[in-house]
Amino acid sequence: MTQQSRHPLAARGPGRRTVVGGLFGLGAAALGAPVLSACGSGAGADPKTVTFGSNGADATPKKAYAAVTGAFAKDSGLKVKTNTVDHDTFQKSISTYLQGTPDDVFTWFAGYRMQYFAKKNLCSPLDDVWDKIGAGFSDATKQLSRGEDGKYYFVPLYNYPWAVFYRKSLFKERGYQVPQKWSEFIALAKRMKKDGLAPIASGYGGGDSWSILGAFDYLDLRANGYDFHMSLMRGEVSWTDKRTVAILDLWRELTPYYQPSAGGRSWQDAAQSLLDKKSGMAVIGLFLGQQITDETIRADIDFFPFPEIDGTHGQDAVEAPTDGFMLSRRPKNEDGAKKLLEFLGGAHAEELYMGVDPSNLAVNEQAKTDSYNALQKKSAELIASAKHISQFADRDSDPGFISTVVLPGLTEWLGHPDDGSGTLKKIESQRSRFFTA
Fold this sequence. Notes:
Layout: E1 4-6, H1 16-21, E2 49-54, H2 59-76, E3 79-84, H3 87-99, E4 105-109, H4 112-119, H5 127-133, H6 139-144, E5 155-159, E6 162-167, H7 168-174, H8 182-194, E7 198-200, H9 213-224, H10 226-233, H11 242-254, H12 267-275, E8 279-285, H13 295-298, E9 301-304, E10 317-319, E11 322-327, H14 334-344, H15 347-356, E12 361-362, H16 374-385, E13 388-390, H17 393-396, H18 399-415, H19 421-434
Parallel strand pairs: 1-3, 2-3, 2-4, 7-8, 10-13
Antiparallel strand pairs: 4-11, 5-11, 5-12, 6-8, 6-9
Helix pairs in contact: 2-14, 2-15, 5-14, 9-10, 9-11, 18-19
């Protein structure tokens, strides 16, 4: 396997049709299609090689990870063999991957998604690594990196906010004003549609159904508040609760302004329509920047926080997922893997990564930020000002529940947005299968 290769079995991962076809009939075990496997594990593994499972298949993160692992290899004298699989396939296959012979170190997410595998004993604790890197991280980041048992299982690399992105020049040309409240947001969308634009860029086709969760989360956070949202994600609240019904009522008000045929479009194509001024706004993460190659366009991109719906909650919550790394439960080269994780948790590694991929923010507080562009600086301010930080629905909840129940249900609902009662009842009927008292 090459140093940076997409796994040859990746193409066999379940596509959108497969997942939707199995709506509400799949359990967590269904995540385990044989599409993600180790690159270089097994008996007789090379003690001078560390294997690294990566979900960074897109060009920019792939290049950024190569820069980081290349620097580590040069400093340590160890070789890093990288197994790169596309993001969606990686997520759908992670359970079986970790139960088999996974790579020594692998990319994953902070918070619940990390805790889920720590509780299943599918990863190794990293307290000794944190003894060396801990000074660089805030208490909030440390909390996101610990399992329910209080041990560390996660080394963070970066985070990034979700917001409503737009092009400044388009707003100036058309005389659009940045909305702060829901009514202003809907009024702006109506005006954009009248002006011949697709008001909200949208693409959730193929493996990109996860992208719809940004709007769902913000609608819930703004209408019902952070505490309710987290209770819903943790399976503590019924999906037929009137507050959940209210989310789909609000979403249905917005759907007429979505870009047509979103179910057949990738998030990258939707983002490109924003960059091309064919769409007026996009509810998306800062990773939108991965699509930008012209720095004059990057300078023209701006964002505003998702609008206020209920003044009780205002705009006090921000979606800011944190990405990083974990250690497999039985690494073939434990010493080398921990050396890699110590390097990855350092300020230098974050600076190297951000130098290639300016669509994220360094989490290590000792990392230099003087090279940040305007979007990165504003993003850091948004996260710093938040009263509550959510990770993202598929990271704050049981992965099987979101992937095989919630996502297919909401995706199907978006195709014909009715009052949502049938969809919510189906989701609720599966909740007890994933969450037990």
